[in-house]
User: What shape does this take?
Amino acid sequence: MYSRLIKPNPNKSFFLFGPRGTGKTTWVKNNYPQAIYLDLLDSHLFTSLLTDPSRLITHIPPHHQKYVVIDEIQRVPELLNQVHKLIEEQNLKFILTGSNARKLRAQGVNLLAGRAYTYYLHPLTAIELGKNFDLTQALKFGLMPSISQETNPQKYLASYIQTYLEQEIYQEGFTRNLSAFARFLETASFSQGSTLSISNVARDANVERKTVENYFTILEDLLIAYKLPTFHKRAKRRLVTSPKFYFFDTGVYRSIRPTGPLDSSQEISGVALETLFFQNLLAINQALELDYDLYYYRTATGVEVDFIAYGKKRIFAFEIKHSDRFNPNMLKGLKHFQADYPMVKLYLIYQGQKTLYRDGITILPATKALMELDKILEN
Assistant: This one.
């Protein structure tokens, strides 16, 4: 098992959210071996606590001092009232894991505000993998923890998507039309790393616009996709307002994205590298609690920077290029952004082998950038 970056406060209850397959259960069992573990995927336990949430206390030994883990808490949101009560009255500590924040947001997660912190577990980062990180493999299959153990990563990823369709989407009642949702997923994959047009996705998927809006919300609630907003603070130019869209993992994206003779492998690989950088940036920012707000930058005239990390004291701009050779034209967007925000720290990430410096811009090989991203953001 790889050591993960998150370091929860040892004296507080906490939520641990993340998509299925990111290793939440394994991480909890390895780090809290003496905890009481309650799995709501167990049908008997699920039925018992759904019928009467107050039965929760019967599963906890008297004078228990260690954590109580409730896995897949979103399956019985009403348990949060009991958790709240036991934290207040008996000073118990809970770890509440889930792959779906939608139900909790709708049914009372705020009851624990201030009494339980929130952490997220993402696919592995290059830093967590260390010497086992392989850029070529990561671009093909992503960084889900199970991938390294699979003899057939493509089959695993296809099964992973099917699991979400059947268990999360259909069984939880988010939609009764799986064929429409499957068409939507495939169509949405063409928007990966691009400015999102709901109308275009709806038209191409042959699904009503309002339904597509709801589908995108479902993806975000299930933590398997993100919308990246435009950076507009003290903007001096006219900017686009639509967000960019990303599935949470490169391998998942490539598994959903259909390919054929008319598809450019260079284009898909470029989006994959951008996705890989984004998922590492997001995971490190949250795990180390760096508190950067993440954006992208695009003017109405089409000048773009892939990622902006905006913090209380620092601002970073990252441009990602799927090329093994540096070309000064690659710096256009970064220089444009620097003209408006001279305090920014600028990085170009590419697939070459040399670290270069040009006009105040640091040019880094992708592997080096990913392996040192924590140090870059903390510098």
